[in-house]
């Protein structure tokens, strides 16, 4: 996460302080120290898994003492819950800003912007992406409901908004099952997008390589969707 965004994150920290997940002492730290602690929690959880989260290792990663961590969080589980909630609220707020713009754009342009912008933004929060990937692809039950489902639901709803805008503009066929279509597009965009963020997935999906750069694959995805669901003029 960029320090330039920390003013937004501070709002979520205030809310979580009110919910008892973090103390006033943490809130009063300088942004650089807050960020270091949050990243340390995410990296440790992504590497070891949430059930094996080690407070001593988090402290070492963050460059703080174990005792300091206990003045910031009620316990180990509370520390992880805080990090997850900060991330979910940060992602939700950030994506919500773009939802009306995407739904107002022509569908072809909106899908391209959604994919390209999502990949670029995700590369700025790789600590969160690594933890999210562990939870999503390893089937971690502790994080599937608290981290994966809310963000995945948000992404699917963004696809829904884009399709709804396209319906109003007459860009897609009127015989489509929109609820099923949004889920298929949601799944396709995840497979293509995640393969660009997580190399081990690209080894499996083979979305891009030296011969076929990601730009070509993204264009092919958008064209495939538009040919399948668009009216002749929109496609």
Query: What fraction of the residues are assigned to beta strands by DSSP?
Result: under 5%
Number of helices: 12
Instruction: Indicate the mean pLDDT.
Output: 92
Q: How would you spell out the order of helices and strands?
A: HHHHHHHHHHHH
Number of strands: 0
Task: Describe, in plain words, how this protein is organized in 3D.
This protein has 235 residues and is mainly alpha-helical. It has helices spanning 6-18, 24-27, 31-48, 55-62, 66-72, 76-104, 107-122, 126-137, 141-168, 178-197, 199-205, 214-229. Helix 10 (178-197) crosses helix 11.
Write a brief structural summary.
With 235 residues, the protein is mostly helical.
